[in-house]
Specification:
By secondary structure, the chain is mainly β. The protein has an eight-stranded antiparallel beta barrel. The radius of gyration is 23 Å and the shape is elongated.
Length: 194
């Protein structure tokens, strides 16, 4: 009788559909994420290309219902064509924000999040060098900047501890002299640490 019960139990384990999934996005779980991508278009090294790139690192801490808090830092560089050169404008920002889970699948493998963040930082034009090669002088100044960002993020779990991120965001910053709005899109990885 005992042998038949063991065989029946094993048969049911293999015959019944379904799976088990790790517990994901629980309150208090943390992850370290790194992201990178393009700013205001597709970056290339051509002299007339204005687009730029960015990269950042952040700590994500999950709250209730799969929502999360994000705290991190980011570097962004955009280029402004001038004759046969491009003038770099770089921003160093710190971010603090809250991301609301909008959608997820039943297996908790796919998540769509909408986030709002506050940003503060510093912007430098041509790395502080005011004189150009042709004797012209830049009038834009280095300055402290502040504002916010709206982010749409897709999270896809590759494993229980590794998450692939796709992001699109619009940054709005004041205090600079080179434009308030910047559109970013990129990709990243998050590593769950607890």
């Amino acid at each position: 009788m005992r042998g038949k019960l063991i065989i029946l139990t094993l048969a049911l384990c293999f015959a019944l559909p379904g799976g088990s999934y790790a517990q994901r996005c629980l309150p208090g779980m943390r992850g370290i994420q790194v992201t990178g991508g393009m700013v205001d278009g597709i970056y290339s090294s051509k002299p007339d290309n204005e687009a730029g790139y960015y990269f950042g690192a952040a700590m994500a801490t999950y709250a209730k219902n799969g929502n999360k808090w994000i705290f991190g830092a980011e570097f962004m560089q955009r280029h402004y064509p001038y004759r046969e050169i491009r003038i770099p404008v770089s921003q160093f920002t710190a971010e603090g924000g809250f991301y609301l889970k909008i959608l997820s699948d039943a297996s908790k493998t796919f998540f769509l999040n909408l986030g709002g963040s506050a940003l503060v930082g510093y912007e430098t034009v041509n790395w502080g060098e005011k004189s150009l090669y042709d004797g012209s002088t830049l009038r834009d100044k280095d300055s402290f900047i502040g504002g916010g960002a709206i982010t749409l993020e897709i999270e896809t779990y590759l494993s229980d501890r590794v998450v692939l991120l796709f992001t699109g965001r619009e940054r709005v910053l004041w205090g600079n002299s080179t434009g308030h709005f910047h559109t970013q899109f990129g990709i990243g990885l998050k590593f769950i640490i607890n």
